[in-house]
Amino acid sequence: MLTLYSYWRSSAAYRVRIALGLKGLAYRQVPVHLVKDGGQQHAADYQSLNPQELVPLLVDGDARIAQSLAILEYLDETHPQPGLLPRDALQRAQVRALSLHIACDIHPLNNLRVLQYLSGPLGVADEAKSAWIRHWVETGLRAVEKGVAHWTGPLSLGERPGYFEACLIPQLYNARRFDCDLSGCPRLLAIAARCESLEAFQQAAPEVQPDAQ
């Protein structure tokens, strides 16, 4: 069985949980608390599994795969049905581009370790830190909103969610958590409304994870 090292409120782990649910894959979840004990991801036993000291980490037999998008690609290649990406090469590239914008340009700027560094060594006040989060999340999501404007169907795979939605929904969760202004993202909110009623997304939600607090 697949094993996922995860943290309930990690956006990156949330992406993988969604993808596993969309593919109907059974897995065992091992919680890694990113705050307790100074961050369990820094412990020697976990570092030996994942030198990046991040979650998620997927273990499949002897294979260990870090980084959420690499895991999504691995799952799609090893369990191709149902697919997470469009068949058309251009559409696949466009979905990947929007997903990378979320995962690489938006998410890192509201990631726990970035926020801890702002609050700690840099001494940034909570109000300024919140303004930082809202600025980058709102700016990034408005760009994603423009990127889905040309879609002919309601979701990235027509009537079905996949790779893109696995990235979008966790970032929208963060945006709401940080009280971001999403009024400029009606298409993204419509996508979320469709996805959040589906079992794969409900079972992946942070609040229902075994380590939820």
TrEMBL record:
InterPro entries tied to this protein: Glutathione-S-Trfase_C-like, Glutathione-S-Trfase_C_sf, Glutathione_S-Trfase, Glutathione_S-Trfase_N, GST_Zeta, GST_Zeta_C, GST_Zeta_N, Thioredoxin-like_sf
PROSITE patterns for this protein: GST_CTER, GST_NTER
EC numbers for this chain: 5.2.1.2
One function term, GO molecular function aspect: maleylacetoacetate isomerase activity
Main enzyme class: isomerase
Entry keywords, A to Z: Isomerase
Occurrences of domain GST C-terminal (ranges): 88-213
Domain GST N-terminal: 1-83
Gene Ontology BP annotations: glutathione metabolic process; L-phenylalanine catabolic process
Signal sequence residues: none
Top-level taxon of origin: Bacteria
A cellular-component GO term for this protein: cytoplasm
Family of the protein in this entry: Belongs to the GST superfamily. Zeta family.
Name the UniProt record assigns to this protein: Maleylacetoacetate isomerase
Species this chain originates from: Pseudomonas denitrificans
Lineage start: Bacteria, Pseudomonadati, Pseudomonadota, Gammaproteobacteria, Pseudomonadales
GN (gene name): maiA
